[in-house]
Structure formats: C-alpha cells, structure tokens
Write a structure and sequence with these properties.
The chain is α/β, with parallel strands linked by helices. It has 8 helices and 11 strands.
C-alpha cells in the first residue's frame, strides 16, 4: 500500500522505493511529505470486531504498551450479542470482562489481556441462512481433506513490504496453539518471519480485479498477478484481503471500493467455490499528519459499510468474515511513522488484531 491483519512496524520504504525509481502514491495525488507513500499502504493497528449479520469476526485486540499487552486488569471488552444468523462480539481494545455470551467462549493469553466474548452460538458465524463455524462455537469446518488450510494474504504494502505485522500474526498463532495452517503466496517475507504472501506495495483493490496489473507510478515496467491469477496458481483455502487504503487515498468512493471487493470475492470463488474470505476493515489513517480529515472520513465510511456488505455476500459454503483493524487503531506518531504506516508498535497491534480475526476460524492443535 502507501494494504493482506490481521493487522505495526516501521513501514516507510522511501529508501527502497527511491532505489527502485518508484513512487508509492497514486498519480492523482500529491506526494506525501516525508515519504508517506514510500513502501505503499498503511497498516496501523487493529480494531474491535465489527458486528454484522453473518460473517463478522469478533476481532479487537489487547491494547499494546511498551513491553507488551496489558496484564491483569487490562482493557475491558464488551460481551457478545447474537445478531441475525449469529454476529460476533465486539472487543473494545482487548481483554474481555465478564466472559462470553450464550454459546460462546473466552480465550486468553498468558500474562496479557483476554481476547474473548464470542457471540451466541460461537465464533465465527455466517449470515442469515448460513452455517455457523462449528456447533457451539468451534472453528470453521473446511472441506473434507483440508486439515491444514492454506492461507494467502492479498494486500498492499502493509501486507507486503515491510508489512511486518505478518511476523507478529504468526507468533500470536503459534504461541496460542495454532499450527495447522500454511501461509502461501507469490512473494517471500522481508521481515524475518518467513510468511509468504501475495501482496504488492502501492496496489489497490481495483488493480487486483485484473488478471495482471501494472503500476506506472510505482515499480515501473513490472507486472503483477491479480486475484484470479493468484487463485488459479496457489489454490488457497482462506484469503486474507487487506486492500482499500490506496483506493481511499486516491479518492475512490465507498461504493466503488465495495464493488471491487465483490469482484475479488467472485473471482476467488470461481477458482474455489468453498474458499473462506476474511476482509479487513482498514486501520485509521491521516495522510501527511494533516489537519484535513477528508481522507480519514472516507476511510471511515468504507469501514462502516464493510460488515453489512460482507453479510450479504457470505454463504454457508464460502463465508465472508470481517477482521476489524479500525476501532482500536491509532494514526498518531505513537504507532505510525507518518500517520499512515505503522511503526513496530503498530505492527504488533495489527498482528494481534489479525490473530483475533483468525483464531475462531482456524483449528487449534
């Protein structure tokens, strides 16, 4: 991006982009001061799990402080209300107080806040007419024979490079007893976590709707595979979709971006009718740390529209879940390098929020 969280690390790739002769900002936008576009997308912290009729993952994350997540007496999460077809509980920043709602469960991490408060019937649930993810709140039932789901991250620079929330997501999964999965994709990780992905810095949701795409303003002369090509080649069981920041930044409306999301979902299902999709509600952004909030408000409008959109698209065979990276995110310099790209604190938050979005879907050991 100037996104594939989950999610966070010092994401400014100005030096890299300069060496490659690229600009990580849409051509219709002025250059961001201090290289806000270098390296691409934003990816600041995660937010509380949005509630929606079907397919919304209860995702908030423990609030991070220097030295780790809050311990005993940490952040309190709101319980979990059942929505049409079973919506997921909202977590306000991390640990849950008071446990789970009917049929749900509360989980915790050693020494830190608890991440719990699942919805009635369990986490996650699909929309009206859909099947819940396991009777009584268990993991999603992948097709027979899929015992180690292949996960592909599709996004911009937040998920590409540096995109370092990925290593924190992996650590959260492994530390909490999740190892029955495999990250796959077109590219290797550059953050030391060994997480493969299919994210491209500077990219948009619109660009990924093409079988192949180029970015004249970034990485000139190179072409990249879009969703349909990636699905055909890598055949993932689960797609983490973290796109939209560059779309919002470049002025595309909520309706346009949701239409692009829907095209991506359709393309994914054309290759795998039972693919599971987890779509990110992008984190808060304030390009150039400006006092002007037009782009921030445009991002918020998109974020608010995603749960209902996901609910309508979610099916019993191919659910569309939502990972909330917005609610507890922070675009200030405390968690970003430029009010867009997360620093290491922001990367940790995003990794935790993506973990909270996936833990109810994957099967623990």
């Amino acid at each position: 991006m100037r996104t594939q969280s989950v999610s966070l690390a010092a994401l400014v790739l100005a030096a890299v982009c300069a060496a490659a002769g690229c600009s990580d900002k849409p051509p219709t936008q002025p250059s961001a001061a201090g290289g806000a576009w270098a390296g691409g997308n934003i990816g600041a912290g995660g937010a509380a799990g949005g509630v929606g009729a079907g397919g919304v993952v209860g995702a908030g994350g423990a609030t991070l402080s220097v030295g780790g997540s809050t311990g005993g007496g940490g952040i309190t999460g709101t319980g979990g209300g059942a929505g049409l077809g079973g919506s997921v509980a909202t977590l306000q920043g991390g640990s849950s107080a008071g446990g789970s709602s009917a049929g749900g469960r509360t989980s915790s991490t050693a020494g830190g806040g608890a991440f719990g408060g699942n919805a009635a019937g369990g986490v996650p649930n699909v929309g009206a007419g859909g099947a819940s993810a396991g009777a009584g709140g268990g993991p999603w039932m992948f097709p027979a024979g899929v015992t180690k789901p292949k996960i592909m991250i599709v996004g911009d620079s937040i998920s590409a490079g540096p995109g370092c929330y990925k290593k924190y997501l992996l650590k959260n999964l492994m530390d909490n007893g999740y190892s029955k999965f495999e990250f796959i994709g077109e590219y290797t990780d550059d953050c030391g976590g060994g997480v493969r992905h299919s994210a491209v810095s500077c990219s948009t949701a619109e660009q990924y709707t093409s079988a192949m795409f180029m970015m004249p303003n970034c990485q000139q002369g190179k072409s990249f595979p879009g969703m349909s090509t990636l699905m055909g080649k890598h055949k993932p069981d689960l797609v983490m979709l973290q796109l939209g920041v560059n779309d919002v930044w470049n002025g595309r409306s909520t309706e346009q971006t949701l239409a692009d999301y829907q095209t991506l979902v359709t393309q994914a299902r054309a290759q795998n009718a039972k693919v599971v999709l987890v779509v990110a509600q992008i984190q808060k952004i304030r390009p150039e740390c400006s006092t002007e909030d037009t782009i921030t408000k445009r991002a918020e409008a998109l974020v608010k529209a995603v749960p209902a959109w996901a609910s309508k698209l979610s099916t019993a065979e191919s659910p569309v879940f939502v990972a909330d990276l917005w609610t507890n995110s922070d675009f200030s310099m405390a968690e970003t390098s430029d009010c867009v790209h997360p620093n290491d604190v922001g990367a940790q938050r995003m990794g935790l929020n993506w973990y909270n979005g996936l833990k109810g879907i994957l099967t623990p050991n």
